Request: fold
Amino acid sequence: MGPSGVGKSFLAAGLCADAIHKGYKAYFRTMEEIISVLKMRDFTRTASADYKRLTKANLIVIDDIMLFPVQKEQAVNLFNFINQLYENTSFVITTNKMPADWAKMLDDEVLATALLGRLLFRCEIINLSGKSYRMKNRKAFFEQEN
Reply:
């Protein structure tokens, strides 16, 4: 958890790559990609195959979870997916939203609490802070006057 540009996705991708190198079934997806797979799994072979891979994963990285507001149906699908897997699959999630903000993003406090309960089950929270690595060399761009 932390602000944009501090390396959350980079660290999560490294953990995923390390798991793959050690022989685990590990997948890195953005929350938008997960939601798309859940929405399309009954309609396209590609989404169906990806869904099956994800349900058999040892590790799923969900990048940028709750970056954007989620429609109710999508939120329920995400909850059902996490609920189906959380006891047997490890999750790494990256977010720049505090857990208290998730209820706003889902527009449902009960659903947010239930989703967080499953994701925070046997978890470690790592808070990253600092300035954006992406913006480090772009400082001059923002300081220029017209």
Q: What stands out?
A: Helices lie at 8-21, 31-40, 45-55, 72-85, 99-106, 109-119, 139-143. The longest strand covers residues 26-30.
